[in-house]
Amino acid sequence: MERIILFDGVCNLCNSSVQFILKRDPNGTFKFASLQGEAGQSLLKKYGLNTNINSFVLIENGEIYLKSTAALRICRKLTWAWRLVAVFLFIPRFIRDLFYELIAKNRYRWFGKKDSCMLPKPEWKSRFLD
């Protein structure tokens, strides 16, 4: 099963989230690509998504998940304790996404922004798409 996470490569919160996932995904379930990179842009086009999307994107076996649904589906595959967070999938998506969008809209102001995408540690390099 293929699982790819597309993330904002210049967002400090998003980069921290990717590192969080990497540390709690010992089986290498997820691959990663920045939204700004060639692989990320190619995947966005392939799946008919706006190339200026403002969301975490999970591609899971050809299905697209965005915003809070993507984040919670990712949690379901992390180490045991984090799987419990997926219980919030039972909250209606429009309610979950209100909170997601509030954070997404303010993420640069609250968490900062880098000038360029993060470079993965050598042990994680194979999990990032070029």
Commentary on this structure:
InterPro entries: DCC1-like, DCC_oxidoreductase. GO terms for molecular function: protein-disulfide reductase activity. The chain is an alpha+beta fold and 130 residues long. A four-stranded mixed sheet has the order 2-1-3-4, with helices on both faces. The chain is built from five helices and four strands; from the N terminus they run E-H-E-H-E-E-H-H-H. The protein has one domain (3-127). 23% of the residues are buried. The model has no long low-confidence stretch (mean pLDDT 90).
Quick overview:
Helices cover 41% and strands 13% of the residues. It is of the alpha+beta class.
Number of strands: 4
What strand order characterises the main sheet?
2-1-3-4
Q: Could you describe the largest sheet, including whether it forms a barrel?
A: 4 strands, mixed
The overall average pLDDT, rounded, is: 90
- CA distance, first residue to last residue: 20 Å
Order of helices and strands: EHEHEEHHH
Provide the number of structural domains. Answer: 1
List the total number of helices.
Answer: 5
InterPro entries: DCC1-like (IPR007263), DCC_oxidoreductase (IPR052927)
Protein name: Thiol-disulfide oxidoreductase DCC
GO molecular function, one term: protein-disulfide reductase activity
Pfam family, one: DCC1-like
Task: Looking at this protein, list some descriptive labels.
single chain; 130 residues; alpha+beta; four-stranded mixed sheet
Task: Give the secondary structure arrangement, pairings included.
Layout lengths: L2 E5 L4 H12 L7 E4 L3 H9 L10 E4 L2 E4 H9 L4 H4 L9 H19 L19
Parallel strand pairs: 1-2
Antiparallel strand pairs: 1-3, 3-4
